[in-house]
Amino acid sequence: MSELQLLTWMPLVPLLATAGVIATDKSPNVREAVTIIAGVILFALVVTLAANIDWDNPTTLVLAEPLPGLRLAFTPEPLGLLFALVASFLWPITTIYSIGYMRSHKEENQTRFYAAFAVSIAAVMGIALSANMLTLFLFYEILTLSTYPLVAHAGNDKARRAGRVYLGILIGTSVGFLLLAMIWTWHVAGTLTFTQGGVFSDEVSPVVLSVLLALYVFGTGKAAVMPFHRWLPAAMVAPTPVSALLHAVAVVKAGVFTILKVSVYIFGIDTIADLAVSDWLVGIAALTIVLASAIALRKDNFKARLAYSTVSQLSYITMGAMLGIAAGAIGGGLHIAMHAFGKITLFFCAGAVFVTAHKSKISELNGIGRRMPWTMGAFAIGAVSMIGVPPFAGFISKWYLVGGALQTEQWIAVGAIVISTLLNAAYFMPIVYAAFFKEEDPQHSHGEHGEAPLPIVLALTVTALATGLIFFFPGVPLTLVDQMVGG
């Protein structure tokens, strides 16, 4: 299959899966089989593209040209392929998890859930393959709209309020800031095409570049940089598979992917390094990292703690992009993948506990590890990876991020990583300790139950194993992010 055909089919496969899911509404087994098969096919397509692409002469697929010189187009590049690999690999695994969760919890509107999930994956493929900011913006907005029904899935007042916050912040920031930054970039540079080294000439003033960079960072609301982070904890009213989609597979990764891609291909790493505003943005990201970690420490609700942990971890990537050095960009790119596997494991485990033991508070989890050893063992692996301890994936990306911060003498970044690492340990490890070493509280008895349903356990086991395997075999992500910075 040619590169052009692969670029065509990658977003089409999940769209066809959407049609298949809707058509098989009355046959749940067939509906879910369609989703899993589509996920496997999509992953095979992405792997094929990654294995055969000619980086010296990548193919461009033009979808449309709404204005002269302004095209909707796909052109593969290394960071986008890494994002596509992660999302396409986790889609069928999340589907398997969803089968166990949605059926055990007797969720309504399951066809709508699987259909919206498939559309969101199609949007992710569009974002990952975007040749320019116009294409990325289009699919970024499609992702926001397609995930809204998932956030508001429960249909109650709380879910509808969360959906309004979700749409309000994400569309407000993208239209108010991101779109303005794009139009301004077009006016100044005459192009929105992603270009190695950036698109701005030396004639553009540092003041203009500084304002533009700030607009891009705060306009990408999906990156959850404070103060535009509230949508993420609010969205935790959604079912756990949706939380996994938001935090690991698609939405937040689309945000930090956009910031990193803009920093490398619109501004260029060297330009970032020369802008004084980048130091302020490093500081804001560092503040987000530490404050979100401190808030997570105080949360007793399982998913709320994980949500604020995500807010913190995302700003590692933003901070890496703003360091203006290859090591920072590499660390940020790696953290897109490393965080995905660790955090999806944690959310899978939280959902397994909720479905099986009906517990949503951390204070109620004493002794649950003896009843659910696979689930809480996987949680321990995900937690250690989030802390950044070898031999798990999170260590690798943190290594590059700390290295980049030390090279640029950004001591606030070094401090933020050190403090947040300690806070990560403080809010994750007591959960593991209580699950395995504390006696079950009679007031919060877990009842008579064992492990979660098999599809749930299977999914969280696979992602936990992947979190360890990436540490020992980091070749693919390392090669791609090195290629991204021109290595």
Automatic annotation (TrEMBL):
Any keyword Transmembrane helix? yes
User: Mind telling me which residue stretches traverse the membrane in this protein?
Assistant: 6-24, 33-53, 79-101, 113-131, 137-154, 166-187, 207-225, 245-268, 280-297, 306-330, 336-357, 378-400, 412-436, 456-476
Give membrane topology per the record.
Answer: Multi-pass membrane protein
Domain NADH:quinone oxidoreductase/Mrp antiporter transmembrane, chain residue ranges per copy: 130-423
Q: Which UniProt keywords apply?
A: Cell membrane, Membrane, Transmembrane, Transmembrane helix
Subcellular localization(s) per the UniProt record: Cell membrane; Membrane
The entry's cellular-component GO terms read: plasma membrane
* Chief site of localization: membrane
Domain of life, per the record? Bacteria
> Which InterPro entries is this protein grouped with?
CPA3_Na-H_Antiporter_D (IPR050586), ND/Mrp_TM (IPR001750)
Q: Could you say which protein family the record assigns here?
A: Belongs to the CPA3 antiporters (TC 2.A.63) subunit D family.
Query: How is this protein named in the record?
Result: Cation:proton antiporter
